[in-house]
Amino acid sequence: MKVKVAVIGAGGFANMMHFPSLKEIEDVELCAVCDLIYERARNTAEKFQIEKVYTDYKKMIEETAPDAVYIIVAPHHLFDVAFFCLSQGLNVFMEKPPGITIHQAKRFAQLAEQKGTITMVGFQRRYAPVMVEAKRRIDERGGMVHCQANFFKHHIGLPPYYEGAVDLLTCDVIHSLDTLRWMAGEPKKVKSIVKNNFADYPNMFLALIEFDSGATGILSTNWTSGKRIYSVEMHGKGIIAFADPEKEAVFFKDNSEEPEILKTQEAAGSDELFKYAGFYFENKHFIECLKEKKQPATNLLDAYKTMEFVELIYASTF
Ligand SMILES: NC(=O)c1ccc[n+]([C@@H]2O[C@H](COP(=O)([O-])OP(=O)(O)OC[C@H]3O[C@@H](n4cnc5c(N)ncnc54)[C@H](O)[C@@H]3O)[C@@H](O)[C@H]2O)c1
Fold first, then answer.
1. What is the pTM of this model?
2. DSSP secondary structure, 113-143, as one string
3. I need a labelling partner for 207 at 20 to 30 A (CA). Which of 67, 173, 269, 298 fits?
């Protein structure tokens, strides 16, 4: 049986990553799309052959009765929409961050639990094929000893995200915190540095972390570096993996000089960014969880823990 999906928000990101992913998943029936801007919803509907077009998401939900709703709107526009959908007992996929404050994320998680809905937050790096394979190889040798998450962008001279409606750490650096949790467990002790580089808002976040698993971790992120780079290091027993989910994973093991290189396109079996970057696989995970009536790995309760990690970084500066 097909899973009936309705989407709220037909902006650039949804069109680039989520609509192509959902379109390729056989078990999905994309039944309706809604955007405040009618032309956007209509153009998306034409491109992905979606029958129904709306500008009012409440009307869309009432008329189409979907099995799940995707909410892909700007973070500061998320709360009322997601609160309504969760209140209706709907299964919800939302993009990161799950709210612009930890209070919003907590409210979502509480409501989802009360209503027993299946939820997911878009932390696609956990689902990117080279990342999955790198972690599998570390786990095979007894698990993570140490890990590092790097995230750099070139954001010099630009205003903060959404004119400052949400801080950079919560909005974007959160990907690295989520990946660290995925690699090593829950953070136990943190020492961090938060700095403004060439800007009047925080745009560099560094931290040394000890996890409850006993593993250690490093966060190294800066929005005034010369290029967008997202990468991780995973250290296990006699093995190290350097992975960029959009490029490749490079493995060294047992003192060998020869690296083993796994290209991301090869791991994903596709040259499409929406596939090898992890979006297709996170969407597939959500749909499978809906069918099996179980919670996805990055459900709202889990994402709330990543929001707690955000708070911990701010609270642990020295
Ligand atoms: N996972 C990632 O790596 C990643 C990358 C980029 C963006 N994102 C996330 O994707 C989300 C969307 O980003 P974007 O850049 O596409 O935003 P956008 O502003 O371009 O698109 C959002 C769309 O939602 C519509 N919208 C807003 N409120 C609505 C409502 N109440 N009803 C119907 N439509 C409504 C807007 O009209 C707009 O077309 C954000 O949460 C962002 O954080 C995630």
1. 0.97
2. HHHT--EEEE-GGGG-HHHHHHHHHHHHTT-
3. 298
